[in-house]
Amino acid sequence: MDACQNDVLRFYAMHPLPLIEPHAALFLDFDGTLADLAPSPELVQVESGLVGTLRALHTCLDGALAIVSGRPVAELDHFLQPLRLPSAGVHGAEFRNGAERIVTPPAPGIGPLLPRLEALVARHPGLMLERKSVAVAIHYRQAPELEPLVRAAVADALRDAIGLDALPGKMVIEIKPAGVDKGDAIAAFMRSAPFAGRLPVFAGDDVTDEAGFSVVRELGGVGVLVGNRATAATLSVPAPHVLRDWLHQSAHALTHLMAQRDDTANPQQPRREDPL
């Protein structure tokens, strides 16, 4: 039995998820999926070894790995540096294709809404206002009892707004461009190389990821929920650290598979280094 088969058997003994296959197109949420949630967005920590694993998966999947997040692309690059992966930020309002280009639609009319939202946050210290390139979010993780107040304030702010809608998430409500979601972002990636023709796999944790789960299911792919709730995802793991372990194990197995193929194709060539 070779090392790759050992990796697979060891993983199945630990988790219900099958390892990532070489023909997959992998899409990953960031907060609550790749990284554990934190009291505020800037306090999130990236686990040691995660960047190396993502680099290995990106190589083994011929570039078919993208981050699909509510964060701006620039923040994703900061947390995952030096990687600059294909990315959809702000739920798809920002989109970086293989040419390293970020496409951002014209900013909607969020500016006029800010004074009343800032006043709300000033009155309630447990709230936090997060401004993004084309969106704004109110976090109430430190004051969950204020959820009804936040929902009412956002609904009032959007009453006369055009081209904007509200997107509730885990202890947060975001105001973003209407008609933009993670499902559309994944569908856009799947229409172009290197993602086209592959089996889509998307992992996420929040209700904001449900549009992505629905799209990958329609495309015959696999949705992986991090957590436990009603979902359109087909599989689940209980926590981000389990999801990361799945990624580490998959990267390790895929790297060995690539090395074996190289040895078969070029028996006289030295064995490639394991990037992990």
UniProtKB/TrEMBL annotation:
Its EC number is 3.1.3.12. Keywords: Hydrolase, Magnesium, Metal-binding. The keyword Zinc does not apply. GO terms for biological process: trehalose biosynthetic process. It is an enzyme of class 3 (hydrolase). It catalyses: alpha,alpha-trehalose 6-phosphate + H2O = alpha,alpha-trehalose + phosphate. Its cofactor is Mg(2+). It comes from the Bacteria. Pathway: Glycan biosynthesis; trehalose biosynthesis. GO terms for molecular function: metal ion binding; trehalose-phosphatase activity. InterPro entries: HAD-like_sf (IPR036412), HAD-SF_hydro_IIB (IPR006379), HAD_sf (IPR023214), OTSB-like (IPR044651), Trehalose_PPase (IPR003337). Belongs to the trehalose phosphatase family. Removes the phosphate from trehalose 6-phosphate to produce free trehalose. PANTHER family: TREHALOSE 6-PHOSPHATE PHOSPHATASE. This is Trehalose 6-phosphate phosphatase. It comes from Cupriavidus agavae.
